[in-house]
Amino acid sequence: MEKLIIRGGRPLHGHVRVSSAKNAVLPIIVATLLPDSPSTIIDAPHLEDVKTICSVIESLGGNILLRDNAMIFDTTTVDKTEASYELMSRMRASFLIMGPLLAKKRHAKIALPGGCMIGSRPIDLHLKAFEAMGAKVTVGNGYVEASVPEGLKGATIYLDFPSVGATENILMAAAVADGKTIIENAAEEPEIVDLVTFLNSMGANIKGAGTNVIRVEGVKHLYGASHTVIPDRIEAGTFIIAAAMAGGDVVVDNVLSEHLKPLLAKLGEAGVKVIKDIDSVRVISDGHIHSTDIKTLPYPGFPTDLQAQFMAMMTIGDGTSTVTETVFENRFMHVGELRRMGANIEVEGRKAIVHGVPFLQGAFVRATDLRAGAALVLAGLAAHGVTEVGDLRHIDRGYDHLVEKLRGLGADIIRVDKD
């Protein structure tokens, strides 16, 4: 087992480049199951979640070739429609293979997915959609099985919640379904737009991505394409908050600031100087933070994946702030760990009241999930003394070379084996 050792109190300076988006590359890798010829993904991030989804593709019979900074996916050899429990239990996003498998193979049997335990994140929206498209679905003994002998048919599908995963799964299934599919109350995230860009480059006919109504005209065949994934807005936001908390002058490169409007607006309220450029964001901070309220919402609202990091920043605010989580019901697990570092936080249901303290103190803490782990690293950067962060497997799922990038900004952080 490994841990991070962080000696806090050092301002950050310099440039850091954001990697490709985890939440975009995973469905795009899954979408390579659809075409009749190989596809190439350029500059994919080095993440445990990427390794997991690639293992899922290979377990189904697909072949993956690594060449320089590109991954070439040949799924014309896929001959299985059942994914193993061991792989599926690692990550929620692996459930996205159901749509492509139903579309291409007309059958799928998938273990109920795992991942960070930040909420129930039910798959019922996915299953109701597949049933509307003609699939027969059964759930039992830890598995979901679906078949559609006649092939998927287009349908009008209303999502009770604008679920990103359900929108992605339906899009991939509908791309080669028979007829037109309309997704109402669809997710509007940039990662949805990037997936649709990839699907359309393969020959799909999809309109409306980035709005809450997406129309898909099914086509008979898709063909392999090459794609470069958008920058990771959550990684970008994490480095931006790190610079705000620790203080200093940092330029975060490979950023689409349009994707970070809520965060940048809130940083302005918090007294942090933010300068936007075409593909970068510069953060100048003296480490003094004005307490500011946030409420997470589906895109284009404040992202739930930055809630933990923003809360960490509010722990050293100059007053009291309120953090309201509306997306996941169990996303305050980092609160207990932040308290170990001296934070003053009260939780009332889905609302956390954060009373700012003059400084955080180094302590041993554990990453309870991916974004909680990032929040604890940021807290360690700003804290007095030494912070040790354990359970790094969560952080490894979503951050590409995090330690090296922070060290490049002047942070005193190392990764070591536990004693």
From TrEMBL:
Positions contributing to phosphoenolpyruvate binding: K22, N23
EC number: 2.5.1.7
Subcellular locations according to the entry: Cytoplasm
This protein's pathway: Cell wall biogenesis; peptidoglycan biosynthesis
Any one GO BP annotation for this protein: cell division
GO cellular component, one term: cytoplasm
Annotated Enolpyruvate transferase domain residues: 7-406
Source species, domain of life: Bacteria
Catalytic class of the enzyme: transferase
CDD domains: UdpNAET (cd01555)
Gene Ontology MF annotations: UDP-N-acetylglucosamine 1-carboxyvinyltransferase activity
Major location (coarse): cytoplasm
Keyword field: Cell cycle, Cell division, Cell shape, Cell wall biogenesis/degradation, Cytoplasm, Peptidoglycan synthesis, Pyruvate, Transferase
Modification sites for 2-(S-cysteinyl)pyruvic acid O-phosphothioketal: C116
Keyword Lipid biosynthesis recorded: no
Catalytic residues, chain numbering: C116
Entry's family note: Belongs to the EPSP synthase family. MurA subfamily.
Free-text function comment from the UniProt entry: Cell wall formation. Adds enolpyruvyl to UDP-N-acetylglucosamine.
Protein name per UniProt: UDP-N-acetylglucosamine 1-carboxyvinyltransferase
Annotated source species: Allisonella histaminiformans
